[in-house]
Design brief:
The structure holds 2 protein chains of 2 kinds.
Chain A lengths: L12 H9 L3 H23 L2 H18 L9 H24 L6 H7 L8 H10 L4 H12 L4 H8 L3 H24 L1
Helix pairs in contact in A: 1-2, 2-3, 2-4, 3-4, 4-8, 5-6, 6-9, 7-8, 7-9, 8-9
Chain B lengths: L3 H5 L11 H21 L13 H15 L5 H21 L45 H8 L8 H7 L1 H10 L3 H4 L4 H6 L42 E2 L5 E5 L5 H11 L11 H5 L16 E10 L2 E13 L10 E8 L10 H14 L5 E7 L3 E9 L3 H9 L9 H14 L6 E8 L10 H13 L2 E8 L6 H10 L4 E4 L2 H10 L1 H5 L1 E12 L4 E7 L19 E4 L3 E10 L26 E10 L7 E8 L12 H16 L10 H10 L8 H17 L2
Parallel strand pairs in B: 5-6, 5-8, 8-9, 9-10
Antiparallel strand pairs in B: 1-12, 2-11, 3-4, 4-14, 6-7, 11-13, 11-15, 12-14, 15-16
Classes of the chains: A mainly alpha, B alpha+beta.
């Protein structure tokens, strides 16, 4: 993609964030450009639907534009992005729930009604479908820890909860996933 | 329990590559948000506000982007989109075997969303379709040419958003290109309305509205400007009030539509004067066209505040007799973009213009220009005597393509000049749902073009159709600068009113640049407030400056301006100045008997020097009780009260809808067209909606 050519510069995230906070449009543009795919990936993992993932990603971009000046994060920029993306994804789900009153945003139905993945990986796919049926916190924790490979501590920071709470969510999620996987298998 | 090994598989699932258009759209949205935040940069309250309507956000973003023309985002927008657009253009030049032009087909880029292909997919020429049938066709050739280039097919809206300039170049070089790049709004719309991207216009999309860190700005659906209510002025400090006349009626139609759909209009967007001026009033008119209008001033107690009075200025334009109406040379400039493909848009527009044609004289001239992917002349200047030909041309209009406003408007002006009627009326009548997508998208550029053409004698009126996409601000801008009216047509009834009942006033101007200046006598009036006309305020010095453009009055138009005044002695809202005060003993008249002095400046349609009419307002203009005022005065006051109520203004806060209804019901009069009865039903609706809020 041509856009990638723009990304040659090796200014670090924090450098770009700093400049963007001071109102540097170009730095902000580069920052968003650089992280769009990241945001999209997280959003897609969360909801499993292309169109929704794009909507969420766009929303995150807008939120970034509005709030980059308020960013005072000391840690990695991506931590903040995780938090923002998960928030946006939750808001999005809530909104589409309200609007459609359909359950299709959740669970296996999403996969049927959405576009079929390019290379169906049945097991991982089914597992993700189950993850997407978890309560929000558990879903987020599993996504960050197993989907994104974060440590419990890093996930805790992104979710703004304590590390033990993350571990607890993961624990609960595992129990629940087992049940979900079994029922999914029966279907 | 599911163990870690199993869960580790979660990482292995491939994530689809994000759609490049979505990405470009998102990046623009980010930049716009960034810029908006830059502009505000004010303290940020916490919490999230009401969910926004997405269309407005899309529209807003859209406008913002177009205004900025992306000059400032070259890094992202330009560099990505320019090569793509350029490449596509070259490609299209090579591939001229496809069938553009009169067919008005729509190219649908199905690559993005396979499920979008709801509409029938044939390559039949549109001519074989029954007239008026709203069907979207797809040209397979086109589709391939679009999909084939290495560059992904850009939905039109995005690509032009991305590169105003590139698109511009495209429009000039290859007329069909913008059409080819169209993203089949119809197809998109026919999908589940929840899934379209923000930048694929026109469409409804779902974005999570509440924002954690910043509440969204208060925004409205369509691009309607919001504004603050006129403040109360002290007659001592600031005795002079100056404004331009406004004969537009669009705001009333908006309000009506909103109420009928079950929601109160957004307060900040209600233009009270346009509501008041929507209704025909039987003010006393002038005797001849030499004095184009007559003003009647009445002072009456304010129904919503016993301490205050209303100064009601009613102006009636001279009603030209049909025999003396000048010849008309009208160019219909009709938006046939894909977004017009809705029952309340193009089909309504066709019926509306048919009505108008029936109202014209045989030697009036009509031309029709459409604009969509490319601007086209549908009908060369044709005398109304050949009515069948004109009606046939109107019927043949098909929706399709994007909106190349610039090419269309220039073409329309060319035709208007071609059949220019000296000493007649030369007018472009633009009908749109609000999109000027391609080329001249900056309101400022458009304004200059319209202004320049106005000077050559071609005026412009704007008729808005539909909802969700309407650019009221653009309509206002160009109608005000084109010496025309802006009306919003939501029903055939409204079309009947604007184009048939009021045809004469819509088409034939009797005075232009009409400005009103009122000087209040501080000895009689301590405070005053102009109700409405916020968007028409002029500086005091503009009044005598003939170069300053102002509103126009058409044949038989009635215009009403109402001031709420606090008579001397009544409790006032503004404290007197402690030090010094403006005085009248500088050669002015200190006439204790006058409330105010009303000055009206105007130009005759063919003149450049203004004339002045003055009227002192004295005790003779006053009526002792509100009920003693004329029927039409009382009705117009009821409308003004209603407008203020909808704006949620302080003045009418304690004045109930029921009281408005009483006044209006008692002042309904003959109401031959039922406009006033309809108003009553709106008041009841608003009252019910308010209660449920």
């Amino acid at each position: 993609m041509m856009a990638m050519m723009l990304d040659e510069s090796d200014a670090s995230d924090s450098e770009l964030v700093g400049r963007a906070r001071d109102g540097d449009r170009e730095a902000f543009g580069r920052l968003v450009e650089r992280h769009y795919d990241f945001v999209h990936r997280v959003a897609w993992r969360w909801c499993g639907r292309k169109a929704d993932a794009e909507d969420i990603a766009q929303d995150v971009c807008v939120r970034l534009g509005r709030s980059i000046r308020d960013y005072r994060g000391s840690g990695a920029f991506t931590t903040w992005l995780y938090a923002m993306t998960l928030n946006a994804a939750r808001d999005h789900a809530r909104k589409s729930m309200r609007e459609s009153a359909k359950t299709e945003a959740y669970g296996v139905h999403a996969l049927i009604s959405g576009e079929t993945p390019e290379e169906p990986d049945d097991q991982a796919e089914a597992l993700w479908a189950a993850v997407r049926r978890l309560p929000d916190k558990q879903r987020g924790a599993v996504l960050l820890v197993y989907g994104e490979g974060l440590s419990h501590a890093a996930a805790a920071e992104a979710m703004a909860i304590s590390e033990t709470t993350v571990s607890w969510h993961i624990h609960e999620a595992k129990k629940r996933l087992k049940v979900l996987m079994r029922t999914a298998g029966d279907e | 329990m599911v163990d870690d090994n199993e869960l580790a598989r979660l990482r292995t699932l491939r994530v689809p590559v994000p759609n490049p258009q979505a990405k470009i759209g998102a990046l623009h949205a980010a930049m716009t948000a960034f810029d908006e935040a830059q502009e505000e940069n004010s303290p940020v309250p916490q919490g999230s506000a009401e969910p926004q309507r997405l269309t407005s956000r899309a529209a807003k973003l859209w406008r913002e982007i177009m205004q900025k023309k992306l000059v400032a985002t070259p890094a992202i927008a330009g560099l990505i989109a320019l090569p793509i657009a350029g490449y596509t253009a070259l490609y299209l030049l090579d591939q001229q075997n496809f069938n553009f032009g009169g067919d008005r087909t729509i190219a649908e880029t199905s690559a993005d969303k396979p499920e979008a292909n709801a509409p029938v997919s044939t390559s039949k020429p549109a001519k074989t379709e029954p007239a008026g049938k709203m069907e979207v066709e797809q040209s397979p050739d086109l589709d391939e040419t679009l999909v084939a280039p290495a560059a992904p097919p850009l939905p039109k809206a995005e690509s032009s958003a991305a590169s105003g300039q590139a698109q511009d170049a495209l429009t000039r070089e290859v007329a069909p290109a913008p059409m080819a790049m169209e993203a089949a709004p119809n197809g998109v719309r026919s999908r589940d309305l929840a899934k379209t991207r923000l930048f694929v216009q026109p469409s409804v999309s779902v974005l999570p509205a509440p924002i954690d860190t910043m509440p969204p700005q208060a925004e409205n659906r369509d691009r309607i400007e919001d504004f603050r209510t006129n403040p109360v002025h002290s007659a001592k400090d600031d005795p002079v009030s100056t404004f331009s006349i406004d004969v537009d009626t669009a705001s009333y139609s908006f309000v009506r539509r909103s109420l009928k759909e079950g929601s109160l209009p957004q307060p900040d967007t209600v233009r009270v004067e346009e509501m008041v001026n929507y209704f025909p009033y039987d003010w006393k008119g002038p005797g001849s066209a030499e004095t184009p209008f007559n003003s009647t001033v009445t002072v009456m107690p304010a129904p919503w505040n016993a301490q205050h009075k209303l100064m009601h200025v009613a102006i009636k334009g001279y009603d030209l007799q049909p025999a003396t109406q000048p010849k008309a040379n009208l160019v219909f400039l009709i938006d046939v973009s894909g977004s017009m493909n809705e029952p309340d848009k193009l089909p309504l527009l066709k019926s509306a213009f048919r009505l108008l044609v029936s109202k014209l004289k045989p030697d009036d001239t009509i031309s029709i220009v459409t604009y969509a992917g490319d601007a086209g002349t549908v009908l060369e200047p044709t005398k109304v005597a050949e009515k069948d030909k004109i009606l046939g041309a109107i019927d043949s209009l098909q929706p399709g393509g994007s909106t190349a406003g610039e090419a269309g408007i220039k073409q329309a002006y060319r035709l208007a000049e071609k059949s220019f009627v000296k000493d007649g009326v030369n007018r472009v009548m633009l009908a749109t749902d609000g999109d000027f997508n391609v080329g001249q998208t900056d309101d400022g550029d458009l304004k200059r073009l319209v202004e320049q053409e106005r000077k050559t004698g071609v005026y412009l009126s704007v008729f808005g159709f539909g909802r969700g996409n309407l650019n009221d601000r653009m309509m206002q801008t160009i109608a005000q600068n084109g010496n025309g009216t802006a009306a919003y047509i939501d029903t055939l009834q409204e079309a009947e009113k604007v184009l048939v009942e009021d045809a004469a006033s819509t088409i034939f101007p009797i005075a232009k640049d009409v400005k009103i200046q009122v000087e209040f006598n501080p000895q009689k009036v301590s405070e005053y407030r102009l109700i409405g006309y916020e968007t028409r305020a002029l500086s005091r010095e503009d009044f005598n400056n003939d170069r300053v453009d102002a509103g126009d009055i058409g044949s038989g138009h009635s215009v009403t301006a109402i001031y709420e005044i606090t008579p001397k002695g009544a409790p006032s809202q503004i404290n007197d100045l402690r030090y010094g005060e403006a005085s009248t003993d500088n050669g002015g008249v200190a006439n204790a008997d006058e409330y105010a002095f009303v000055k009206i400046r105007y130009k005759l349609p063919n003149e450049e020097t203004s004339k002045l009419i003055t009227t002192p307002v004295t005790g003779a203009n006053e009526v002792s009780s509100f009920d003693a005022a004329g029927t039409d005065q009382r009705f117009s006051v009821a409308v003004a009260a209603f407008g203020q109520k909808l704006r949620d203004e302080d003045a009418t806060a304690t004045f109930g809808f029921d009281r408005i209804e009483q006044i209006a019901a008692a002042a309904r009069g003959a109401d031959p067209f039922g406009y006033r009865s309809e108003f009553l039903s709106l008041v009841r609706l608003a009252s019910a909606l308010e209660r449920n809020r």
